[in-house]
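1st attempt posting a full record on here, be nice pls
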Amino acid sequence: MSLPLSFDGLDPHSPLGRTLEHLSVLVLSDTQNPPRAIGTGGMFDYLQAHLPGFRHCLTDHGAGAVSLLSIRGKPRFLFNVHLDTVPAAPTWTRNPHELLVTSDRAIGLGACDIKGAAAAFVSAAACSDGDAAFLFTTDEEANDSRCIPAFLSESHAYDAVLVAEPTRVEAVLAHRGIASVQMRLKGRSGHASADMAGTDSALHQSVRWGARALDFVDAQRHQRFGGLTGLRFNIGRVEGGIKANMIAAAAEIRFGFRPLPSMDSESLHTQFRECVAAESIASYAVTFAGPSLPAGDVAGAEARRLAARDIADELELTIGNAVDFWTEASLFSAAGYTSFVFGPGDIAQAHAADEWVSLQELQSYTAAVIRILNHGH
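the predicted structure (as tokens):
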């Protein structure tokens, strides 16, 4: 395959050249999630064909969730990367599934988040004969995680799991957890001219709930862990009522929060529920939840962070700051694995129109993976 390069001087047989060749194929594969219309052929046939000498386990978890575990030898470390992408924004200026390589970047849907890392894995494997384990998945970008839970339901032995997400080729040891909630409130319908009780209007209750919730979040600003501070919180949607002269009998609030690793999510849910009278809550449903990285209580999380730091130091990786975005590294941590996040690209480019990853970071990341595969070999 010829590379769609717009500059001279790149050897297509170099590690970076091979990474770009693989990335062009991966970007060509439409793995938008939703709709997650992903099968077991195509892209997965390509990966297996370009990882000769590996033992492959391809699993269809249903609804477009597919995982491929590829192992060579008896590796100490597992690399994980998701191949699904967000849907292409309507503001893309070009075909999102056709990789464009310029003098400094590779542009394409998923190039940054995070097919660039997957391409680097395949390139690195060809440049090394060291032991290796890669777990490719396709269900990270929507609230229906199947691949990682299925992997964790089985017994695997690895010293550490390196989860690829855009971290600018730095090892990120900590990030926030995540929770999304759908809460429905109930009131009593009537004419808006009435002298309403405090619980009559479900929308009035929503406004009061929001004020109390925001006050609670402000009171958490002093909390700290690994460079992160406070509790991130967002009210994404409030909906209810019919018209201005009718008392709203029902309302729905969609909100989310992102706790520090030192915070207990169940306690936070209790706090948010208590911002409104219990009898006014028709339902409170957690629509998505993910643990923090590292997982565990304060002492356990710190111990896991230090263990991850030791592995990153052993592998001579630059350690970056903790981040606010959530990753599946926390799922591995919650299952007892030493885990951290490590990938090329900047999170500012993820999910953006004309998404891109720098060639320098792809080159550095590919070289780092080769070094890790050769580590101790």
